[in-house]
Structures are given as C-alpha cells and as structure tokens.
Design a protein that fits this description.
One of its GO terms (molecular function) is transmembrane transporter activity. With 291 residues, this protein is mostly helical. The chain is 73% helix and 2% strand.
Length: 291
C-alpha cells in the first residue's frame, strides 16, 4: 500500500511541474495563437540563474526574483524577434523554427558558461521527509502541487478581474476587434510571453532541488509540458492542470512497476492515443457550426 501512495505523491509532484510549464503554453497560445518552442529553456534559465547567483553569495530570496525577471525579459525578446515577425496567419510556421533555433543556441551558451556538469539548488524544505502511511515526501515536494493550483487560480482571477487580463482575453477571442477597441495587441502579446516565461522560470526553480540543474534540464520537461497542453486543449487552463497531474501520476506508476524506459514508451504512447481520440484536446469546447 505504501508503494502506491509513494507513486501517487511523487506523480503529483512531477505532474505539477508539467502543469505549470503547460500553463505557459496556454497563456502564449491564447494571446497570439503561437508558442515559444524554447519555453523549456525558460525553465532552465530560472534554475541556472538561481544557482549561479547563489554561488556569488546572493541569497536565494534575492536571486529567485532576479532569475524570474530575467526569464520574463527573455520571453519578451523571443516574442519580439522570433515570433511576431514570422506570425502572419494561421498557416505561418516560421516561429516554430526560429524559437527552436534560439532554444538550441541558449542551451549551447549555457553549456559553455555554466558547464556541462549538473548542479543542485538547495532547499531548506528538503531536509526531513514527512512520512505518510509508509510513504516519504519532502515539504518542498508538497509545495509544488500547491503552487500549480495556486497559479491556476491566480491566473483565472487575473483574466477575470484586471483590465490587462480582460484585454488579453479580448485579444485571444479576436485580435482585430480588440485592436479596434483601443487595445494594444502587440503589447498584450509581449506581456503574455513575459508571463509565460516567468511561469517557466518558477517551474524550473521549484524543480531544481529535485532534478539536477543543467543546460538541457528543460528539454524533456518542456516537451512534456507542451504535450500536456495539447492533450488538454490549449484553451482550457483547468484542463491543462488536470492532465498535467494525471500524466505525472501515470509516469510514476509505470516507472515504479516497470522501468524508466517503459515510462517514456507508455507515456508517449498514451499521449498519441489520446490525440487520435481527441484531436482538439480533451477539454476543448465543442464548436457549433451554424448553417
């Protein structure tokens, strides 16, 4: 019984990381119908900068906000130079190639400057595990699912109760009409990418004490976050979080009763199957066509 609880708890932890990354994809797609395929690297940037600043003697409570701010600026730059010039319509795919290329360059630069050896980011909440029905979990790990759910509600409140959030929703529904109503569509797009990148950095900082910090740490996490967003439906934030948790739990049970290799095979196979069954996403609203 303790094994099942252990897999459930650890699955919720990694699933929450996927969910936070996927929320970033949701924010970008909602704003401009395009995403940053280097979004996994914003996760890495947050973790790497936090570790680097810690080495210089800067306390984490100062270093973490700096890392998140740098990631947000990176998101704005990506939108301005790699997405906006190449996103001219539904059939435009140039932003895919440009963001992937920038992601590869960022990873190479971090490898040169930060080094190829993985590092760790200490957390005071990783000292003593909490034992629950024979399963052990650290307070830091419990913080991650709470953060994912808290970010979901914060994002929902932001969209509903702030002028900027309402403007972002308006741009998502109809950019041309929003522009005619006086909303700065380009500014909204930049802010959306900044917020998404900040969420990516938060995910990286939360994951850093659990996984090793390296230049490539965001590659697989970013890919799985994107898949979670696609499976859930890019336009449903709650669905993104639900699918993130579910996928993380599935992975941990497969890994626990099988192997790490089986985890990837089964996980991606389930993703492909769900895409075949729900090509627009499990939680995508049904479209009604009037004739």
């Amino acid at each position: 019984m303790s094994a099942y609880i252990q897999y459930l708890l650890s699955g919720m932890v990694i699933g929450a990381i996927y969910a936070i990354v996927a929320l970033g994809f949701y924010i970008m797609w909602s704003a401009v119908r395009a995403v940053n395929f280097a979004h996994g690297d914003t996760l890495m940037i947050g973790a790497v900068i936090s570790v680097a600043l810690m080495w210089t003697g800067i306390p984490l409570y100062f270093g973490i906000p700096i890392a998140i701010a740098v990631a947000a600026v990176f998101g704005v730059i990506i939108e301005r130079i790699a997405v906006r010039p190449l996103n001219h319509g539904p059939s435009s795919i140039g932003w895919m190639l440009s963001t992937i290329a920038i992601g590869l360059m960022i990873e190479a630069f971090v490898t040169i400057t930060f080094g190829s050896d993985p590092r760790s980011l200490p957390s005071p909440l990783m000292d003593e595990p909490i034992i629950f029905m024979g399963a052990g979990v650290f307070m830091h790990e419990l913080l991650i699912p709470v953060a994912a759910i808290g970010l979901l509600f914060a994002l929902d409140g932001f969209y509903k109760h702030t002028m900027l959030g309402r403007g972002m929703r308006a741009v998502a529904l109809n950019p041309m009409a929003a522009g005619l109503m006086g909303i700065d569509v380009k500014r909204v797009a930049s802010i959306s990418f900044a917020v998404a990148a900040a969420l990516g950095a938060v995910a990286g900082i939360l994951a850093a004490p659990i996984v090793q910090v390296s230049a490539t740490m965001g590659l697989l996490l970013g890919l799985k976050g994107f898949l979670v967003a696609i499976i859930a439906g890019m336009s449903n934030a709650r669905g993104v979080v639900i699918v993130g948790f579910a996928y993380g739990i599935l992975e941990r049970f497969v890994e626990g009763f099988g192997s790490t290799a089986a985890r990837e095979v089964v996980g991606f196979s389930v993703m492909i199957l769900l895409l075949l069954i729900f090509p627009k996403g499990i939680f995508s609203p049904k479209e009604v066509q009037k004739v």
